[in-house]
Each structure stands twice: as C-alpha cells, then as structure tokens.
Amino acid sequence: MSRSIPGTWLEWLARKDPLDRLTPFGWRGALAFLFAFSLLSFLLCGYFIAYWRNADMDFMVVYSALSLNDGSKRAFFDHPAYWTILSVEFWLRLLHQLRLLDEWTLSAIPADGQRFDAAMTNVIRAGRIVAAMTAGACLLGFAVLAKRIVRDRRVATCGVFAFAMSGGVQMHLRILRSEMIAACFCVIALMLLVIVARRGSVLRPVALAVAAWLCMLGLENKVQAILLIAAIPAVLLPFGGSASASVGFWRSGARAWTTAAAAAVVAACAAATAWPLVSAGLDPVAAAATGLHPLLLGRFGTYQILLWGWILGCMVAFAVQWRVSPPETLAAMSALVAGASLGLLALYVQYDARDAVIVLNPLEKMLQYAKASGADGQLQNSVGLLLSGLLGVFMRYTFVLFSSPRPTVFLTWLIIPGIAYVWRQGAHQIAVQATVLLLAAIAIDTLGVRRGLKLEYFVFTDPLIIIAGMLLLDQARNLWLHPWTFTVGAILIALHVAISQAEPVKIAFKGKGRESICEWSPEYLPRLPLRWCGPSASAAGPEVK
C-alpha cells in the first residue's frame, strides 16, 4: 500500500488535462467536500458564536417564528421574509415535538438574565441550522441543474465550487436572511428555463409554470428578487437553437390548440382565484398605510402591467426567433400566468394584507429602503443615479479600487476576455449568452449600489456570472491544455476559499457589543424585552459563547 500512494500521486500529477487536476475528487467527491467544508465553516464561525452577534436579522426572523408558535399572528416584517419565517417556525415546532427544544414559543423565553441568554442561545442556534440547511439545499439544486447546462461534468464541478464558495452563499450559510431563499428560487427558475429553452418538448409549458411559481415564491421572500425576475426574459432570448423548435405534438393542429385552450382556462381560473390578493396588494389605501408611494403616473399597478407586457413580449420574440408554434406559445403564456398565480396564493398560508402590498409593489418598497424622497424626484435624478451606480459596480469588479468579500469578481477578469476569445473562434451564440448574463449581473448590481451592494445581495448576481463562466469554459476546450490553465484555476480556487471565509471570520471575532440592537428592538421585537436595553439593565452583560 505504501508503494501505491506515491505511484497514484505521480499519476495524478502527470495528467495532461488541467481540469482533471483541478477536480481531483470527481463530481460526487467534490460535492461531499463542499458540504463538509461548509459544515465545518458553519460550526466554527456561525453556530457557536454569540446568539446576538447577527441579531439583524436573526432576532427578527426568530421572533416572528416564536410568535407564530405561541398562537399569535406573525409579526409583520417588510422584507417580507415570508418563507424564511415559516421555515424557522416549522423547524422550531418540529424540534419541540422531538423533545430537542423547549424554547419554541415566545412565552417560553424566560425574562431573567442567565436563563434568557441560555434560551435565546438555543433558539438562535436552531434557526442557524435552518440557514445552513437552506444554503445546502440551494447548493444541491444549483449542482443538479449545472450538470445539465454544460457538457463536461468537470466544468460543472468548477461552477458548483465557485457558487458554494461565493461570498454570498458562505455568508448566508450562517445567518437568517431573506435573500438566500429568494435568490435560490429565482436562480433555479432561470437555470430550468435555460435547459428547456434549448430543446423542445411536450411538457415545456409545464416547466415555465414551475419557473413562474418559483419566481413568485422568491419575490414573497425578498422584494429585490423583482430585478432578477425582470432580467430573466431577456437573458433567455439567445439560449434557443435548432432543437428549440416545437415538437410534433405542438404542431398537430386540433390537439395542440385544444391543449392550449385548456391551459388558458386553467390560467384564467388560477388568476381569478388569486385576484383578491392582487386587489388587496394594489389597494392605494393599504399601500399608503405601509408608507409606499406610486412609482409611475400616480397609480399603483402601472409598471406591473408593463412588466407583464415585457415578459410576454420576450416570449413572442423567442417563439418567432426559434420557431416555437403559436399553440405552444399560448400554452406557455397560460402556464406562466397559472404558475405565478399559484405562487401568489401561497400568501394565504399566513395571510397578512401588508405582505400582499409589499410583494405586489416591490419597486416602491425598494425605493423606501433606499430612502428616496418620492417617485418624481427619483425619476428626475435617474440618469445620475444610474451612472453613479455603474461606476460603483465597475470599482467593485476591479477589486483593487473597491475591495469586497466577493471572490466571484475575479471570474469577470476572465469572462470578459473569454467572451472575445470564443467570438473570434466562431462560437458567436455562446459569446452572446455569456454577455447577456454578465450584463444582467451588472445591471442588477448597479441598482443594488443604492443600498451599498451589501454582501447579502451577491447571491442574486453571482450565479449569473458563474453560469457565464461555465458556458465559456465548456466552449473553449482548446484552452484546457494551455500551460497556464492549471495555475490560473488553482489561484482562483485559493482566492475563493480565502475571501469567502474572510467575512465570517471577521464577524465571529469582531468586538462590537450588542447595544446597537436596542435601536430597533422596540419596533421589531415589541414582546421580547432585551435585558441589556432596559434602563436598569447592564448593557455589557457576559457574552454567550
């Protein structure tokens, strides 16, 4: 055995293909390594840190979950973090039923000092497990679909590694934030649509329904998802091909039109069922009560109609370009409406009219986040704001001018010349696909600069950059044997590992206390008094490890 190890090692080093050397564990081994590494990072710089270290949003989400388990209404949270809160609520209840957690309701949290710290430590750690499981599920979904998008499994392995070690995923792995679920649903929807756009099938409209359903669920968790949702139709346009044409069933005349008509009836029924939610969400009185102002023409619902027109228009353009039959196009549009309606109906699981208002008016809510003075002033200064945001994105993508815990920016250094390379090689469609993905990421990031383009928002655009890189690497096969390929790949791997862990380590060891929580706790935690926020309470109590 001792002799076989050096031989195996030398054999591995002697492999000519750098991709084999960059992916020594294979597909399953790489997934096992990524899950194990992420779990270790979660335990060291997440699970065991002080329960109040990531209070924004850990406390807010857990507070709402505890309220639900106490039989009270869900505490309104304007992200709205709908599925994050419900998943934590279900998890706490499950742990209690398994006799693993006593502090599963708000009334079960004791008020006195040490017992309060112990109870909050238990419940926050339980919530952090939900965050880790969510990130793991998203990673698995990305991996399954990435393998279908590119031809070479080693390229897919590199893409999955970049996604798992992206700054956003590694940060969301250990904190309860609303962005992870929202981005995950929308990115999986995009990847699913990329796959079905390439090849026609009888069930392709069903895939559109699933994608629309996922996008609506994502929007219910974080309003920023609307930016990625709006970009998806344009991103998909260059992903068609000769195999994208409708299959024989959708060109069969009476059968095809009958199926399309049935799909339209189903869509109409689903839309009618969801209409009360739409009406409640666009009610100007309810919207004004949440502090929202109309974005266009002084009326709520204007740009939403334009967005639907944009989506349907892109579907028509795709159908014309890639020879999708009229019956399938109609069925796909109907499936889109049905899927979005079913996703919206999920708000009835824990109904609050304010959730409908936030979900159906996402841009108004985003402007409120950015502390905009009003729609008119925002539109007048739109050019200057966009240019300022674009400059901010450019500086961040250089990393030198504006550093950030985002290793994915280093991929852009290769993607931009990679686009030029594959174009010169004659792979024009791949170059256009990568360009559109990169431009979509830049556009979304440009709008995100208004809120500082925080680490938590990277999960919306990093996957677009990674998918673009996967497409280019899969196409540029003559570069696989280049002498610099392994060196560049190894450097990228090291940068991803190091930079992705920088922010978690920084947060775990930062010396900032918990006094800042008192600034927002009366609004978001009205029934959970924090002992260090009271007039006679110590603001510097012992840190819970």
Descriptive key words:
globular; disordered N terminus; 545 residues; mainly alpha; single chain
Contiguous low-pLDDT stretches (5 residues minimum) are 1-5, 372-379, 536-545
H and E order: HHHHHHHHHHHHHHHHHHHHHHHH
Overall 3D shape: globular
Ends distance? 44 Å
Organism: Bradyrhizobium amphicarpaeae
Keywords: Membrane, Transmembrane, Transmembrane helix
Protein name: Glycosyltransferase RgtA/B/C/D-like domain-containing protein
Describe this entry's structure for a reader.
The chain is mainly α and 545 residues long. 68% of the residues lie in helices and 0% in strands. It contains 24 helices and no strands. α3 (26-47) packs antiparallel against α6, α9 (179-198) runs parallel beside α11 and α20 packs parallel to α22 (458-475). The radius of gyration is 25 Å and the shape is globular. The two termini are 44 Å apart.
